[in-house]
């Protein structure tokens, strides 16, 4: 690749990588908490594909620094850790993901158990949920039950219950 072509690619590859990363990041967080999921799902998927093209182009333009990361212990450790966590989050539908099993267990546990897990009083969690608009909560209810009754998603409640 000529220097002129590399410079031309660099002019748009980095800004495209930045903007697509931000959009996919924001929409991914929204989808995780089931906020506007129907509105953003298609955008998230298409911008995600554009982001892949932008990242590949960015790597081509910066191939030497990219290769250097594979010889650095810290960089390899970070990459390995992310791959390990990603693998633990895969859900094959047969309950095969340990991380998803933990999340489902937490969503199905009563508020009293979640309070114990966090070493706070049950009332602290009930107050957190009430402050977020979930007012008909009892200590024997699970996040799944509260979410169902409130037409919310359990992951939204997880974010509330485990916030500092």
Please give a structural write-up.
There is one protein chain. The chain is mainly α and 164 residues long. The protein contains 9 helices and no strands. It has helices spanning 3-32, 37-61, 63-68, 73-89, 98-108, 111-118, 122-131, 143-150, 154-161. Helix 6 packs across helix 7 and helix 8 (143-150) crosses helix 9 (154-161). It is elongated.
Strand proportion:
under 5%
Which stretches are low in confidence, meaning pLDDT under 50 for 5 or more residues running? none
Report the end-to-end length measured between terminal Cα atoms: 51 Å
What structural class should be given to the helix and strand makeup?
mainly alpha
SSE order in H/E notation? HHHHHHHHH
Tell me about the largest β-sheet: none
Topology, number of strands:
0
Comma- or semicolon-separated keywords:
elongated; mainly alpha; single chain; 164 residues
Question: Can you describe this structure in just a few lines?
Answer:
The protein is mainly α and 164 residues long. The protein contains 9 helices and no strands. It starts with a helix and ends with a helix.
Q: What's the SSE blueprint?
A:
Blueprint: H1 3-32, H2 37-61, H3 63-68, H4 73-89, H5 98-108, H6 111-118, H7 122-131, H8 143-150, H9 154-161
Helix pairs in contact: 1-2, 6-7, 8-9
């Amino acid at each position: 690749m000529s220097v002129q072509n590399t410079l031309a690619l660099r002019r748009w590859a980095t800004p495209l990588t930045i903007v697509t990363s931000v959009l996919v990041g924001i929409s991914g967080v929204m989808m995780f908490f089931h906020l506007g999921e129907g509105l953003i799902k298609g955008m998230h998927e298409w911008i995600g594909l554009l982001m892949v093209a932008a990242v590949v182009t960015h790597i081509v333009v910066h191939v030497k620094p990219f290769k250097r990361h594979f010889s650095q212990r810290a960089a390899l450790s970070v990459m390995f850790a992310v791959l390990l966590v990603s693998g633990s989050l895969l859900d094959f539908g047969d309950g095969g993901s340990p991380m998803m099993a933990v999340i489902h267990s937490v969503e199905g546990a009563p508020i009293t158990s979640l309070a114990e897990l966090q070493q706070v009083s049950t009332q602290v969690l009930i107050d957190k949920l009430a402050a977020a608009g979930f007012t008909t909560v009892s200590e024997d209810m699970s996040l799944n039950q509260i979410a169902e009754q409130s037409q919310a998603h359990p992951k939204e409640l997880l974010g509330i219950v485990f916030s500092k």
